[in-house]
Write a structure and sequence with these properties.
Strands 1-2 form a two-stranded antiparallel ribbon. The longest helix is centred in the C-terminal third of the chain and has 30 residues, at about 135-165. A hairpin with a 5-residue loop joins strand 1 and strand 2. By secondary structure, the chain is mainly α. It has a single domain (about 1-170), classed as Arp2/3 complex 21 kDa subunit ARPC3. The protein has helices spanning about 5-25, 40-50, 55-70, 75-90, 100-125, 135-165, 175-180, and strands at about 30, 35.
Length: about 180
């Protein structure tokens, strides 16, 4: 929680949330029952890599709340939790990985996989009735959610890697300084 006492971290988190919100409005493709291909995950993943999992998870939860307010798909209170704050908070898991290109690739993949799990269970529990005739609800939920999360991950990975390389010469976060000094780097 001390991280949010640092004005720079708080500002970076606010900017990442705002950028995620704006990028979430620009959809390449929108799924019929929620979910879309967009760059909304990119700033949250980058923030988690730069500032760590705590800042990433909290910022993802805040963004999930904003997303719920702006584009709600509400069927049940548990579904709301799974599809909004928990799913976007899961993107903060990228912060457990090093803020390097390799760490970004693994971290973003793990974070989006965690988000996928949230949407998958929401789909199985609350959206199984939308599955086409003869489809297993598990297969339907996996296919439906992968249809927008896999392309979104691919797009976010490209942009995050480019930005990490571009930001390499910029003023590093305290977390990046710690990793540069560690012997394993």
């Amino acid at each position: 929680m001390d991280a949010f006492k640092d004005t720079r971290v708080l500002t970076e988190a606010a900017l990442a949330i705002a950028l995620a919100f704006v990028l979430g409005l620009i959809k390449v493709f929108k799924m019929p029952y929620g979910g879309s291909i967009s760059l909304e995950m990119m700033p949250l993943i980058l923030l988690a890599l730069r500032q760590g999992p705590w800042v990433g998870v909290v910022s993802g939860i805040v963004y999930g709340g904003l997303n719920l307010i702006s584009d709600p798909a509400v069927f049940h209170p548990v579904q709301v939790l799974l599809d909004y704050p928990v799913a976007f908070g899961a993107l903060g898991l990228a912060g457990f990985f090093r803020p390097t290109v390799g760490g970004a690739i693994v971290g973003a993949t793990v974070a989006v996989l965690a988000r996928f799990v949230c949407h998958f269970f929401s789909g199985v529990i609350f959206f199984a009735s939308y599955a086409p005739e003869g489809w297993n609800p598990y297969v339907y939920s996996a296919a439906y959610n992968a249809a927008y999360l896999v392309p979104s991950l691919a797009i976010a990975l490209v942009v995050v890697v480019v930005l990490l390389r571009a930001l390499d010469g910029a003023q590093p976060s305290a977390r990046q300084i710690r990793y540069r000094r560690s012997p394993a780097h």
